[in-house]
Specification:
about 160 residues; mainly alpha; 4 helices
Length: about 160
């Protein structure tokens, strides 16, 4: 904020100084040379002043371009930072969804194992049911291992909490 105020004050001071200088030059020349023909000769002497102000205008233009480039770079950095935050938030949401799916599947397998275990069957149907229960238990154990790995990764990410 202070940098902006000082830049604005420098610009205002420069513009006011140029206007005051031009007006004072007009009055000084009018007072010193009342004849118009003499004023023309004196005006020719100010040709250098014209090129001076053209050069100053060019310098201010270059300065403005450099300031604009700084602002563009700062905005670009801010946009990259926000974009990176968005990617991290999306990854975090994905991990949360994956965790929800894992816990849902574990509950589903538990419910299926309980449902299948309640029915008492004999013969070949019992063997098929037993194989189905064993398969569900194996799948549930795989999900528990995945959940355990997920938990360990979270602990590593937070420094072993």
């Amino acid at each position: 904020m202070i940098g902006r105020l000082s830049r604005k004050s420098i610009l205002v001071t420069a513009v006011v100084s140029v206007v005051v200088l031009q007006i004072s030059c007009f009055f000084i020349v009018s007072y010193a040379w009342p004849e118009l023909s003499d004023r023309g000769l004196v005006g020719d002497l100010f040709g250098v002043t014209n090129s001076l102000f053209s050069g100053l205008g060019c310098a201010f233009l270059i300065y403005t371009i450099l300031l604009q480039q700084e602002q563009i770079n700062a905005q670009h950095s801010a946009n990259l930072h926000l974009q990176n935050q968005g990617v991290e938030e999306e990854r975090s949401r994905d991990k949360g969804r994956n965790l929800e799916m894992l816990t849902f599947l574990i509950r589903f397998y538990d419910d299926e194992i309980n449902r299948l275990s309640q029915d008492v069957l004999a013969g070949p149907a019992a063997a098929a049911r037993s194989a189905e229960i064993t398969d569900l238990k194996r799948k549930r154990q795989q999900l528990e291992r995945i959940l355990q790995l997920f938990h360990e990764n979270v602990q590593k990410a937070f420094g072993g909490i």
